[in-house]
Amino acid sequence: MDLATVIGLALAFTGIIGGNILEGGKPGALLNVPGAMIVILGTIGAMMVSQPLSTVIGLPKFILKAIMGGKGHDSAATVDLFVGMADKARREGLLALEADVDKIHDDFTRKGVQLMIDGTDPELLREIMEIESDSMKHRHEGNFAALEFMGGISPTIGVLGAVMGLMGVMAHLDQPEEIGPGIATAFVATFYGVFTANVLYLPLAAKLKNNSKHELHALNVVIEGLMCIQAGDNPRIVREKLEGFLTPRERQKKDEAGAEAKREAA
């Protein structure tokens, strides 16, 4: 579970609904089935028109990933992995890494290490791994585009709901009992459109875009590690190069973990 996403959504709902209550509003007044249908189904329908079916089918899983959190990439652990492989490759040769391939759980890393052991030319290996990385980026960008489109169109659909509600009101001016529900649908539809766009769709798109950048950064650590080993770099040089990808916080945690391991060994 991604706590930042869950807590952020909870705060947004609490702030908006709580503020409405403090202003004297009633939460029940925000519940309007016709308005919800117009905005939510209308937004989803418009998004389906704008996006390929494969993106539409994969979007729920993509959104769930933002809420639940992905498995993530431990770049510090990746640095240690490649430093260890660099040391072993220098002492025993690249073929000695064959026994370690099945212990690598990340598919991207395992593929790169296997290609390296198979003697793939360095430039070709980099090209293959960058194509894999670019393919992932392209898939993610399709999902970002869908969520950002929904964030852009939802308020407009809300305005459409407001217009439809007011049209209903104007058609029943001779029936006062119909005026209240019609106006409620009009204003609540507008609320739904603005709310879903700015609390759900656009923030989720931004969250997933940021997560994708971190994932691509982690893949770059792997690619650089493969190049270092193929070049026969000294393990110390490999560590210095790859630790340049880490944030100051990641380096500090890594140093603290190393110091703790030394104390336990002593």
Task: Indicate the topology.
Layout: H1 3-22, H2 33-50, H3 53-68, H4 75-92, H5 107-117, H6 122-171, H7 176-230, H8 235-243, H9 248-265
Helix pairs in contact: 1-7, 2-6, 2-7, 3-6, 4-7, 4-8, 5-6, 5-7, 6-7
How would you characterize the largest beta sheet? none
Class derived from helix and strand content: mainly alpha
Rounded to the nearest angstrom, the distance between the terminal CA atoms is 37 Å
Topology order in helix (H) and strand (E) letters: HHHHHHHHH
Please state the average pLDDT score. 87
Task: Give an overview of the whole structure.
The protein has 266 residues and is mainly α. It folds into two domains: 1-31, no CATH class; 34-266, no CATH class. Helices cover 81% and strands 0% of the residues. Helix 4 (75-92) runs antiparallel to helix 8 and helix 6 packs antiparallel against helix 7 (176-230).
Write out key terms for the chains shown.
single chain; mainly alpha; 266 residues; 2 domains
In short:
The protein is built from nine helices and no strands.
